[in-house]
Amino acid sequence: MTSFQRWAFCLTVPAALLTLCLYVLPILQVLALSFTEPTVGLGNYVALFQNAAIGRVVRTTVFVSAVTTVLTIVMSYAVAFALVHMPPATRRVALFMVMVPFWISVLVRAFAWITILRRNGVLNSALVGSGAVSQPLELVYNQFGVIVGMVHYMMPFAIMLLYANLSEIDLRIIQAARSLGARPVSIFFRVWLPLSMPGLAIAGLFIVIFSLGFLVTPAILGAGRVLMVAEYISVQISSTLRWGVATALSTMLLLVVGILIALAMRSPALRAAFEGGRK
């Protein structure tokens, strides 16, 4: 090992110690509590599979996360695709608009959606006033409101990930397809879509993982009626003080995320995305 390599290694030691103290040790503590609270054994993990309430929470989390992922990917892909085809000046303005939500608190965005979606909110008032509906619609404090808020939160991340991928596609390939007589629909499904699979894989994995552990938006827009895993864990820790169940569920959530990442890394599209990022 050269002196430069030793110096570089020493520079990583503080970051490694910080990660160990603030991340690894708390995770090990959570794992230990899941086996020792309230008694030593596997009782907390057995309860995860036998408790009907936990089963409903898990099913709700999976359903909301899946719908959020699909809707976010579809709409974000459309926006990113449009960004790639915009003139440079228009694209700069559009990218600025995409990034504006990053500067707004998630709490502000969630309460803004309540203002829009509640029974006497902006949307319902407009629908009732125009005669489109006779009674206000139930658009918030249910799964619909939670999904709307989560999709809105996730879209800027997905748009930026997909735009980075789409902007790297060589436009000469598209021009070659056009010169060979391919129609726009064929070009999209046989050229654009296959070449954008790495970006779709990265964005999809990001949204799924983020959705599984989402807390603030589902808690506000669901108002306790749409209970997801993260909020259930929070309630068990802060209200009912069932640390054993909470830590066991946290451990299972971490395990599921790890398995998802491991399986995703076996995907050629995801490997291509990471290999492309290293070039």
UniProtKB/TrEMBL annotation:
Membrane topology note: Multi-pass membrane protein
InterPro entries in the record: MetI-like, MetI-like_sf
Gene Ontology cellular-component terms listed: plasma membrane
Main location: membrane
Subcellular location: Cell membrane
Transmembrane parts of this sequence: 62-84, 93-116, 144-166, 187-220, 240-264
Keywords: Cell membrane, Membrane, Transmembrane, Transmembrane helix, Transport
Keyword RNA-binding listed: no
A single GO BP: transmembrane transport
Domain ABC transmembrane type-1: 58-264
Record PROSITE patterns: ABC_TM1
Superkingdom of origin organism: Bacteria
Family named by the database record: Belongs to the binding-protein-dependent transport system permease family. CysTW subfamily.
PANTHER family according to UniProt: ABC TRANSPORTER PERMEASE PROTEIN, INNER MEMBRANE ABC TRANSPORTER PERMEASE PROTEIN YDCU-RELATED-RELATED
Name the UniProt record assigns to this protein: ABC transporter permease
Organism, scientific name: Mesorhizobium zhangyense
